[in-house]
Amino acid sequence: MTRMDDLAELLKTLCPMFLLVDQDGRILRVGPTLQKLRPDCVMDGKSFLDFFEMVRPRTVTTIPALMAMAGANLHLRFHDEPRTALKGLVAPLPGGEGAVINLSFGISILDAVRDYALTSADFSGTDLAIELLYLVEAKSAAMDASRSLNLRLQGAMLAAEEQAYTDTLTGVKNRRAMDSLLGQMTASNAPFAVMQLDLDYFKSVNDRLGHAAGDFVLQQAARIMIEETRDDDTVARIGGDEFVIIFQGLSNTDRLSTIADRLIERLNQPMRFQDKDCRISASIGTALSTHFDNPRAEDVLQASDLALYQAKREGRSCHRLYSTLLKAQS
Description:
alpha+beta, 12 helices, 13 strands, five-stranded mixed β-sheet
């Protein structure tokens, strides 16, 4: 084995991205990791400058100029794709026999690991690149864990918020959600309607058939309200058998009356629970935000409540508009 072979074997362990070149810049030996970057290229016997372009200093364009850069930091890259950026250091051999050029990735190491599927086995055991890879891997794992935790926390927060605004028995919104939405509606000055609905004879269902039947009726009533309203409308249960429906952007009284009539018709139908009929009806009162010059949530709610009690006084199972009450009073 020649001196060059012995030196090359030593360099494979110490700096696996080395090049041994003669005094004319012809490549004599190539480190295993460097060769892995161009597995289909035979570098032995070729000129160093055939494979690498000097980026800094730009004045190095010849082999003599390269050899004169002993001990200086070089910045270079491959001529062909991928044009991986490299750092280099030239160490002349005794007697002018050539030089060892040791290369490294520097800050491009992460791109290199990705582009060439490098592992820790491709680096010297003392190379700081190994530490950097471990740090990046640890950071990546920590970031993945952090993202996963954040997603779980966000999901938990959304679930908690949804639960806080949901009536657990019927699945519709609760009074808290209604108050929040009405606050938003009045703040935006957008027109809206509030429909208050009481289930007539609900107490008799509870007294005659028990609370399980009452719960069933409430659930079925909530389902009917959802089916008879739009996706943008909000159904809320605000008391035992009291519901509120908020219609965003709807101020047509004929259309609201049609919706109320459909609700009354469907809620008048018997609900079958454990082979027994549960019979209820509905009294409904509706008020529009447009009835008020400067509508406040409590004003519109009170107006719909007045219309609801007018419906109850007139025999239940009917719908009354607050605007009708205003006309009667004028």
